[in-house]
Design goal:
about 300 residues, alpha+beta, eight-stranded antiparallel sheet, four-stranded antiparallel sheet, 5 helices, 18 strands, globular
């Protein structure tokens, strides 16, 4: 995926803070000096040896910068790869294709960055909205473990019911905010296919405990022209019929109006009007956005805040 200079996709999430031990207090996003907070946990990790994590392919993901901008906590993450192939640039001269490699120095690494913008006020107790710049290799599943590690290393005390003192630490769970109606998306997008799966049952196989059946998959194609309302009603009916026949997972592949694809899971007994999914929003910027930002881009923060506030 190539990144554009003046455009990014931004995905919205929520995370909820908790305590590893039930009796432990839940720390807030920010607190006055001398009190505990997620901000202080990240700051302590940066002061200690940096908030970073090594990836299985030897890439390094780290928290490069943290600041308060527009009233929000903003985190800038970098992902660096020492083994990435050098990018190539192409042009045509007199009808002939020419390629030019971009050569890095021996002590350099290819790097990309992603902003994470966290609203300071919880939407409900201990739950905060955040926006994340959608960058290959810097998804929520990549950066959240860095925050969790910082929290795990930021232990604090609590008292049990007997008055004895113990240590605990903060936990963090996150999920994407479902903001798009599937029926609305169908007005400008289209279904590609339906995918169903269930635990496989293979009665002819006697492997004496050496192998076991996995899952059985099927792909269904929609061959008739249906409007979005009729298609939604049919989907719900098909989902319930599939569940009645042992198919435990039912999802649809959708091509959006921005030419991006989404897989939307439909739960059993779901009502058509209530089927929502997580969609990344495309946002345009006046500022030219680099593949890797050396510091936090304030226009990105302000546009993310507008998105989180529904403007």
């Amino acid at each position: 995926m190539f990144l554009e200079k003046h455009s990014r996709f931004i995905r919205r999430y929520e995370f909820t803070l908790g305590a590893r031990k039930k009796l432990g207090a839940v720390i807030p996003l920010y607190a006055e000096e001398g009190e505990l907070s997620l901000y202080d946990a990240l700051d302590a990790a940066l002061e200690k040896d940096g908030a970073s994590a090594k990836q299985p392919n030897n890439d390094t993901v780290d928290l490069a910068e943290m600041d308060w901008i527009g009233g929000c906590l903003v985190l800038l993450f970098h992902r660096s790869s020492p083994d990435a192939a050098d990018p190539m640039y192409r042009r045509f001269v007199k009808g002939k294709r020419q390629l030019r490699p971009s050569v890095k120095e021996d002590d350099e690494e290819q790097t990309v960055s992603a902003h994470m913008v966290i609203k300071p006020h919880p939407v409900i107790a201990n739950t905060y909205k955040f926006a994340l710049e959608e960058i290959p290799g810097l998804s929520a599943s990549t950066i959240i473990p860095i925050i969790r590690q910082a929290l795990a290393e930021y232990a604090y005390e609590y008292e049990d019911k007997r008055g004895e003192t113990h240590e605990t630490y903060a936990t963090l769970k996150y999920e994407g905010i479902k903001s798009e109606s599937l029926e609305e998306a169908l007005k400008t997008g289209r279904f590609i296919d339906i995918k169903i799966s269930r635990p496989a049952e293979i009665d002819f196989l006697d492997a004496e405990g050496v192998i076991a059946p996995g899952r059985e998959y099927a792909t269904l194609k929609i061959t008739a022209e249906l409007d979005e309302k009729e298609l939604m009603d049919r989907l719900v009916f098909w989902r319930n019929q599939a569940a009645a026949n042992g198919w435990t997972d039912f999802s649809v592949d959708l091509e959006m109006d921005d030419k991006r694809r989404r897989t939307v899971r439909i739960d059993r007994d779901a009502e058509a009007k209530e089927i929502l999914f997580v969609r990344a929003d495309q946002v345009n910027f006046r500022t030219e956005l680099k593949v890797c930002a050396a510091e936090i881009v304030e226009e990105f923060v302000s546009k993310s805040i507008e998105l989180l506030e529904g403007k």
